[in-house]
Design brief:
Layout: E1 3-9, H1 16-27, E2 33-39, H2 45-52, E3 57-59, H3 68-81, E4 85-89, H4 90-103, E5 108-113, H5 122-132, E6 137-140, H6 143-151, E7 159-161, H7 176-183, E8 190-195, H8 204-217, E9 221-226, H9 232-241, E10 248-252, H10 257-260, E11 264-269, H11 278-285, E12 290-293, E13 308-311, H12 316-328, H13 330-347, H14 350-365
Helix pairs in contact: 3-4, 4-5, 8-12, 11-13
Length: about 375
């Protein structure tokens, strides 16, 4: 007997939560679970991946921040589908999805919190606390996320930690020199990667500043910023004001990050809050050492002095110093890379993540 599970999320772009949903939906055993996915606002590249895996996808088309019509359409879709369990992902889907599922008569509701959401004000946290009362379980993807929500009034017994999972990295299909030619940078230089949405949370200005510091002491480092967001124009202007446009390159959104990743000498992450960042896991899986801010989520992944380095939020000098230390020591880079790959392969596999979700569903469904 299969049990129907519906996953509700805002979009199906290539964000961290969206990637985890796609991996989970494709990995759940088909003989037990009939998996469906619903995107409230819009689809995206992962919609094609899900359909290719045989998973039905519905896009509601929410247009406004408060969209009663989208909520009604979601509720009608859930009532028609009659899922045994609904799992929602992140704030918009958690709010729309949990209330719509409850009104549609779904007996088992699971929510997912994916980040230390320090942006949330009293209203959002009040909504979280109220909805938690009618939620069977709330999945946090790291200990730091669980601690944040417990501190903000969510009962600890409701929260279940299931860490993200990642597939083993495949070798790149191009050489380092070919990538340099493709990007228009000199062959043989060190490529430092930064991947993520161009938004305040990611503190990309800190990375540009750190790249400027590195330029003072070495001429062989190029920073590749992969991603898109509302701050791109502002960040490009900041780069140009620093007169470092020859060393900092905005590549925009790309679907081939894992093709680039093995060629990074290291990955930079300067965020002031995260959940369990997929990009750090992807870098470690590719054998790339990480220099990141010491915040909940990254410290669950990066072991300081073993798989990379951690530094305080906003410490641009240390971002540059630790990068220089790794660039100066190829043996250290290789050692950190191997340790990171081993850590991800053993502790953050997709199989482990999927199994933990399946066990939770079985416990709730009986």
């Amino acid at each position: 007997m299969t049990r129907r599970v519906l996953h509700v999320i805002s979009t199906l772009t290539r964000g961290g939560a969206e990637k985890q949903l796609a991996l989970l939906a494709a990995g759940l055993p088909r003989n037990e679970f009939d998996v469906h996915v619903c995107a409230i606002s819009r689809g995206g590249p992962l919609e094609e991946d899900l359909r290719a895996a045989g998973i039905p996808v519905t896009v509601i088309g929410k247009q406004w921040k408060y969209d009663p019509l989208a909520w009604w359409q979601l509720r009608r879709h859930i009532a028609r589908l009659k899922p045994d369990l609904v799992q929602t992902w992140m704030f918009t889907a958690n709010a729309y999805g949990r209330t719509a599922a409850r009104w549609a008569g779904v007996k088992h509701i699971v929510a997912s919190e994916r980040c230390v959401d320090s942006w949330k004000g009293w209203l959002q946290l009040a909504i979280d606390r109220k909805l938690a009362r009618r939620t069977d379980a709330i999945i946090a993807n790291s200990r730091g996320v669980k601690e944040f929500y417990v501190a903000n009034g969510i009962p600890a017994e409701k929260l279940v930690v299931i860490e993200n999972g990642i597939l083993p990295a495949s070798p790149s299909d191009i050489t380092h020199d070919q990538l340099c030619d493709e990007l228009g940078v000199p062959r043989g230089v060190h490529l430092v990667g930064a991947v993520g949405r161009l938004w305040h949370q990611k503190r990309i200005k800190d990375l540009i500043w750190a790249a400027d510091l590195l330029k003072v002491i070495r001429d062989d480092v190029h920073l590749l910023i992969v991603g898109e967001g509302p701050l791109r124009e502002n960040l490009e202007e900041f780069r140009d004001a620093c007169q470092i446009q020859d060393k900092v390159h905005f590549l925009g959104p790309r679907n081939d990050v894992m093709r680039l990743m093995p060629h990074f000498a290291l990955l930079w992450l300067a965020s002031d809050y995260e959940g369990l960042p997929n990009v750090v896991m992807e870098a470690m899986s590719a054998g790339v050492p990480v220099v990141a801010t010491d915040i909940p989520g990254t410290r669950d992944l990066v072991i300081h002095g073993e798989t990379g380095f951690l530094t305080s939020v906003g410490d641009r000098a240390n971002l540059a110093r630790f990068a220089h230390k790794l660039l100066e020591d190829p043996t250290m880079r290789a050692k950190f890379g191997m340790a990171g790959r081993a850590r991800v392969d053993t502790e953050f596999s997709v199989e482990r993540m999927v199994t933990a979700h399946a066990q939770l569903y079985r416990r709730l469904l009986g």
